[in-house]
């Protein structure tokens, strides 16, 4: 396992950017469709012609049921159209009336205010989640930079102690790619110190015999770091 912190940052950035792009795309599509039908749409009352049920399996093996909704209506040229509606509601029933607009030049292309609402909700949800994840990743990066600065300061001015290695433990509150990160624990005069997250190579090479250097702030003992550079 590579550095878990780096993996967390990469995953959060990728998910954040992906969600943000998806949200912006949903908002753009909803707005574009609304403007297009505002100019070229013909209002009509359609009826739900069919609710086509289908099932699919989720990643965890469960089965989920979804529906395709087909509506029928008659155009101004007395042409009967049966086409798919691009959203579903549990309140829908066959024969139910629904207000839509069809494109005057392409009557199989339809639109409803509900469609616009769905896409705008998706835009807000996806964009909000994406920006939240991206912001979280940036905060982690900032904290990592601050931690690097602290480590340099502690190397230069801190008190170094030799703490006895007591074990490598999992941080069960965090999961990365299905695994819990692991840290090296060491003890000195009853105080337990924890290292940063370990890479797989570090886990394999570290012996639990002997001591490890810990740099501690001279004024605030809660500020410290376990030096893994020369640990064996």
Structural features:
alpha+beta; 2 domains; single chain; 232 residues; 5-stranded antiparallel sheet
Count of DSSP strands: 10
Please give the order of strands in the largest beta sheet: 3-2-1-4-5
Low-confidence stretches: none
Domain count, please report it.
2
Q: In this structure, how is the largest beta sheet organized?
A: 5 strands, antiparallel
The helix-strand sequence is HEEEEEHEEEHEE
N→C terminal distance:
19 Å
Proportion in β-strands: 25-35%
Structural class by sheet pairing and helices:
alpha+beta
Please report the number of helical segments. 3
> What coarse outline follows from CA principal-axis ratios?
elongated
| Overall pLDDT score | 89
Q: Using only CA atoms, what is the Rg? A: 29 Å
Helix content: 25-40%
Q: What do you see in this structure?
A:
With 232 residues, the protein is of the alpha+beta class. The chain has two domains: 4-130, no CATH class; 158-226. Helices cover 38% and strands 34% of the residues.
Explain briefly what this protein structure is.
The chain is of the alpha+beta class and 232 residues long. It has helices spanning 4-40, 113-157, 200-205, and strands at 41-57, 63-74, 80-85, 97-103, 110-111, 159-170, 182-188, 191-197, 211-216, 224-226.
Task: Walk me through the topology.
Elements: H1 4-40, E1 41-57, E2 63-74, E3 80-85, E4 97-103, E5 110-111, H2 113-157, E6 159-170, E7 182-188, E8 191-197, H3 200-205, E9 211-216, E10 224-226
Antiparallel strand pairs: 1-2, 1-4, 2-3, 4-5, 6-7, 6-9, 7-8, 9-10
Helix pairs in contact: 1-2
């Amino acid at each position: 396992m590579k550095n878990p912190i780096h993996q967390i940052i990469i995953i959060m950035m990728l998910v954040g950017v992906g969600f943000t792009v998806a949200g912006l795309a949903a908002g753009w599509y909803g707005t574009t469709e609304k403007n297009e039908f505002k100019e070229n749409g013909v209002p009509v009352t359609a009826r739900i012609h069919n609710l086509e049920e289908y099932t699919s399996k989720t990643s965890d093996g469960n089965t989920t049921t979804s529906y395709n909704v087909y509506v029928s209506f008659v155009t101004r040229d007395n042409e009967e159209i049966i086409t798919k509606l691009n959203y579903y509601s549990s309140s829908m029933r066959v024969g139910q009336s629904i207000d839509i607009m069809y494109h005057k030049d392409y009557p199989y292309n339809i639109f409803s205010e509900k469609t616009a609402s769905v896409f705008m909700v998706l835009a807000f949800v996806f964009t909000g989640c994406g920006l939240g994840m991206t912001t979280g990743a940036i905060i982690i990066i900032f904290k990592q930079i601050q931690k690097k600065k602290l480590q340099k300061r502690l190397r230069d001015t801190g008190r170094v102690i030799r703490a006895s290695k007591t074990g490598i433990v999992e941080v069960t509150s965090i999961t990365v790619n299905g695994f819990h990160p692991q840290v090296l624990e060491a003890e000195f005069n009853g105080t337990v110190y924890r290292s940063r997250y370990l890479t797989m190579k570090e886990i394999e090479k570290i012996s639990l015999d002997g001591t490890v250097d810990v740099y501690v702030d001279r004024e605030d003992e809660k500020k410290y770091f376990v030096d893994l550079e020369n640990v064996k």
